[in-house]
Amino acid sequence: MSRLPVRLGSFVIAFAGCLALGCGGDDGGGGGADGGGVDGGAALTCASLTLCTYAEVTQYFTPITAPAGGAIADGQYRLAWVETGRADDDGRLADLEALEIRGGQFRMSGGPRGDLGTWSTSGTDLTLHTTAYCDLSAPDGDADNTWTYRYTATPTELRIYDTGSSGASTWDIVRVWKRMGAADEACALVAAVPTTPGESAACWASNCFCAYAVNTTLPAASCPF
Question: Residue 182 in 3-state DSSP?
Answer without folding.
Answer: strand
